[in-house]
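User: Please predict structures.

Assistant: First:
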Amino acid sequence: MVNDKYEVVIGLEVHAQLLTKSKLFSGDSTSFGASPNTHVSPISLAHPGTLPVMNKEVIALAVKLGIALNCNIEQQNYFARKNYFYPDLPKGYQTSQDAAPICKGGFLTIQTPNGEKNVKLNRIHMEEDAGKSIHDLFENYTAIDLNRAGTALLEIVTEPDLSSAEEAYSYITALRKLVRWLDICDGNMEEGSLRCDANISVRLKGETKLGTRVEVKNLNSIRNVKKAIEIEVDRLIGIIENGENVIQETRSFNADNNSTFSLRSKEDADDYRYFPEPDLPPFNITKEYINTIKNEMPELPAVLQEKYINAHRLTAYDAARICDDKEGAILYETVAAQTGNYKTTANWITGPIKNYCNENNFSMNNFPLNASQIATLINFTETGKVHYNLASTKLMYAMINDKTASPESLAVSMNLLQENNTKALEIWVIETLFSMPEKVKEYRSGKKGLLGLFAGQVKKLSKGKADMDAVNKMLEEKLK
């Protein structure tokens, strides 16, 4: 439903599961895919008499993300108990942060059709994850897997600062890229390590008071975030247009039939009865500690993109594609340092190398050729002895299969070397033009686009070995 009378207001809560080897308050493993209820201990099972011990790596990751998102880092911190009952929450409460989140304020810059937008953040806080309820394993029972219970999370909460499903899509895309870049979270939404709750309301345009909000929980893909918001906005406008009242509630999204459905009435903060966690002492984060984390952080994507545009003279598109992931940027910089040719290196990294990695479903740092081998291939291709198309579709694969051979020896053995002997090229060009007299007349009468037809025929006659740059120049000379 499209209705210009209303405007949409969206706030997002994203739970990022941290890349720590152990849980927030115990030594239990956090690795994904283990058999149910095997990564548990008396602490994560909440046995009487057990006490939590803080995982200090979680603090470092929270500070790192806060710095990257322009937040104020709170130096005085403590945990609180968030009380609620759910079958996969063994303690009957969740250890979280309430009044003193580790990061306050900040923003994340996203791209919109109207340009850049700084999405304002409310807070980032640390908390432990609950377990997992599995409803479709048994017909009459719900199964509980507590492997995830106690895993460290960062909850990143925006202000109600997004105004469309498209902006929400851009925000989640940018945030997932950032947490991956910083090695904070793997961002695998399908595995539940990055989950999003969307708070959505609508109001008449021009009004300042927020409408009654609904929350759509546990959206597990960026596409589902966008789709669920679109569906819920249509539903809310329909309710208002029918003269009914919107109920504040928590809903879920059914991706099979593209619908949302009610789970429960929405709790407010008072319902959770927060109070300071008595089993964990408050802790202080020093300015020296914050500066140490800051100095150890890698350059962020936005900084690198600006450098690639200004210093390397790349297009904004190429710079953004290189910075899609940190491994790609590292590979680009390492190879470019050896080739000295930024643009050509960018073409290889964002083209055949990225395509090969996507086809084989692995990251750039697992590409079979190292930076020196890639640079050798690029430099050899730049000599003009082999055409880029042949180098990227055949020679690169040959080097992957035989990493000890040089690109030149492989090009010779595979008969890939370009023919740039003037005599040979002239024979193919003349033969082509004599075979198409009518097309030659058309070209000379103004149909300059026929040059591609002639070049294609020369390429065919040469079995792909002709140096096409030289061929095009020769064709233009002959056709005069």
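Second:
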Amino acid sequence: MAEPIEQGVTRRHTFFCIDRQRHTASTRVIDAVQKTITVFGQEIEGWIVTTEEPVIDKTITLEESLDDVGVRHDPE
């Protein structure tokens, strides 16, 4: 049987945070812009950050997807 095919891709996330170092320590930062936003009438200083993270897409064969059919019983 052939090895599963894996393809590496990246996914970008853009978010607002007030602690840039904490939220970007383990990811690759594409862009970070200081921004002041208003939440419930209160001004908050923070960052609009865009990060890029690797994601692995794996092509699952029909045989592999049917391996456990009938074994798992979902009570829902």
